[in-house]
Write a structure and sequence with these properties.
The complex is a heterodimer of chains A (345) and B (656). With 345 residues, chain A is an alpha/beta fold. Chain A has 15 helices and eleven strands. The longest helix of chain A is centred in the N-terminal third of the chain and has 18 residues. Classes of the chains: A alpha/beta (345), B mainly alpha (656).
Amino acid sequence: MGIPETTAATEHEAGVGQISLSVDEFRDYALKVEQEVGKVIVGQVHVVHQVLVCLLAGGNALLEGVPGLGKTVLVRTLADAIDCHFSRIQFTPDLMPADIIGTNILVEDEHGGRRFQFQQGPVFANLLLADEINRATPKTQSALLEAMQEGTVSVARTVYRLPQPFFVLATQNPLEMEGTYPLPEAQLDRFFFKLNVAFPSAAELIAISDRTTSGAEPRVRPVVNGAEIIAMQHLARQTPIATHVTSYAVRVLRATHPDSPEATAITKRYVRYGGSPRALQAMILGAKITALLDGRYNVAFRDIKSVALPALRHRLILNFDGEAEGISTDAIIAAVLEETAEEGT
Amino acid sequence: MPGPENETLARENNRDRLMIRRALRVARGHLRWQLAVRGFAATFPLPVLAAAAWIALARFTLLDLPRWPELLFFVLWLLVYLVWVGRAQIRPSRAAAFLDARLQLDERLTTLLELEGRAKVEGRRPGATRFTEYLIGDAALLLRERLEMLPPPFVMRAGRRHALAFAAAAIVLAGALTVPTSLDLVRSTQSEVKVALEKQADRIADLKAELVQRADLPESLKQGLNSELSALEKSLRAAPTDRAEALAAIADAEERVRNLLQGAASSDYEEITQSSDLFKEAASTIVDSKANRLGEAGDISSAADAAKRIKDTLKDLDNPQIRALTADLQRAASAAANKDPELAQDLLDAAAAVSKRDVAQASAALDSAAKRFEASEKAQQAASAVESTLSRLEDGRQSVAEAGAATTKRGQVGFRRGVAAQAGATGTPVPDAPVDPGNGNMVQALGPAGGASLPPSGGGTGQTGGGAGSQGGSQTGTGGAAQTGGNGQGAPAQGQSGTAGAGSGGGAGTGSQGNNLGRIVGPIRGGGGSANPGGEAEGVGISGGAGTSTGVASNTSQGEKVYVPNQGVNAPAGSVGQAAPAPGQDTISGLPGSSDASPGTSSSSAPGVGMANTIRTPYNEVIGQYAQQATDALEKAYVPPDAKSYVRDYFSSLGK
């Protein structure tokens, strides 16, 4: 049974109205979640932190990394730590939209009558792992994207609201590009962050082997619940940000557009189109959460800089020169951050 | 929350706010200092450049600019700068941004101020208050730890651009002050000329005041002098740096003042004065003798007093006294005969009446003579006043001509616009001297009769003796002062009846080339001589010499004949000074020289002055002789006191 729509809505409203967190509690919960996840996940501290930021911002994250880096374990552990319903979808080329969102099936009632009943798909969860999303067809991808963007699912003219909090963690394998369907830019833009999962270091590999091959299984206990996550999301949005800091984020975004007066030389040379306003939203929200997690009560310039990469790297569209020369969007964003002054002219 | 906890939180909140306000005040002080230093560095080159431009205008042009604006630029800049710094407002947001950056507060203060500002405008929002309180406490905590680490405001480095601007302005100012310019000399000269003209104008004003107070001068004369001097003073003050114009004005004034003399010089009255002295001496002798007898005594100060005394005592005189008085009266008549025959006749009549003891006739004659004596005295005083004025004008002219000019020797300056030369005595070449036609400082004046196109003028320089020698016997000489060219004024050569004729001495005169600031270097020797070697050569002649001397002048560019003085005072009578060619330049004007070879007379007119490039006899070889001759002449001859001083000054300046 899926979660009734009304119940989900009430739970959302209850989270806002009934739970009021202090900043210290916010920081405390976040720290506990990271610590619990850290019991299972070796290394990847930055990735875990950014995933948490994404979760607390109410956004969705796209993880890109080679297989075996623990992306699935990360999401599952995160789900255990926040005591939320978790589901996983393994995207394949033959995956259909109904496999994601659910479908109406014919059921017999107790009186022998037959009727259609909506069978919720795996998307009806708090945390959803969309594994290898680039292997599914665009049609299937778009079914998930509506859920990510709207938080609802439309089936047979009926709109079903998804549970809150709702967090999608999609993964991509950078190695297997043949037979895949790269996400179009419009769909990439709906991901809050794109995180690159790096190969573990030698020490981390040793730790991984010790932890996973010794028989000891670390147990993750839930430290926060869904309502508290919602409250944390609400508190995060209240974090104040000064006008000149917002202006700085705007200048950084505009610097990624080649036609903008603030565009840097590297932007003009390699970028065809820069980040969208969603990128600005991602930077601002991400900076607010970063500031709170850092123990501060306001957004600083360095918070913007710390979230600029994950917020922009999947939103820049390179031109032919950029593609031909193999310039990474990370390099472009780094150059933009270096050349954009913190104080406006 | 419980009440006490609320109060505690409120107190802490207040303390935090005070801390933040204090930090903002400190930041505003730092920013105002920064603003002041940057403003200073950015704007100080402006008054420096303005002062440099003013100095350049003053130094590299001939504009007569005052120097005080150089300081005024700095004063004005300082006033504007201080007002600007004082009125500059440092906004709290700027102070907050300053602290956020310097103390690494991660935009805490700026965010806090913005929240409070929004709260004022939009009203309090839920959550915003909570974060505001969080920020106040957090910011205050950090400020307490870090505010002391704020570097002092005095530690500042000037921007490179400002340093370059400052250095450029300093270089421009240094250049304006130190780059040499030829105008400095011109300006220095103009300054000296200006001072000299102002000084002369003041002296003329003083002279006017002196003349006004002299009751012994006729009103018409005083008015005439005052008018001329006023016009001259006005002219000098009107063009304070135009030396040529000033010299021309002085020369014109001299000419007009000279015209007031109406041809009569004070020396013209010397004979009358001598006669008056004899007259008073005669009266004094009688009074003295009578006083010895009667116990009375008294001074005879005037001719009228002398006449009265004689009349009063005539009846009581004995025969020897009558004879002595008669002889004295006759001598007085003889002395005045040349200048005032009527006076001489009155004296002779008085002598005749005295010898006859005719009191009535003697009284009438004596009264008439006394009146004539008084009239002559007044005329002499008037002439003397005019001559004194001319002398002072001449001094002034010399001072103006010398102002700002480098000279090796001081000489007498004469300046005259081109005017034909007049008669003068003989002249001799002067020593060579450097000539600067530009300012005409060293002009060899010359020529016979000294001075080229200059009429003789009183005062100053050199006295010329000239004139006629007198024959022996009772003939009186007709010596008179011949004017040498230039500024020489002849001292009268006196002839003495009954004695050997007095020769006339040559005189030195000065002359200068017309239109030039001529200055004579070296004496112009007059050649003259006494017709009678036994006679005394009176007059301020530099050299005595033969009775005749001629001057030859020509306006040739090759030179003109001038006369070398004879050797020694007692040159043989009749000898003529040697003529020596002296190359010279064309003169401005002049008349051909002429000579009169009649014995005992010498006169010549002098042509224009030539500037000799070479001389035959350097003046330093003869200056001693001339100076000695002049001294002898001063001791022996009757020379007006102011003329004596000229002669002495003349030779003393030559000796330097």
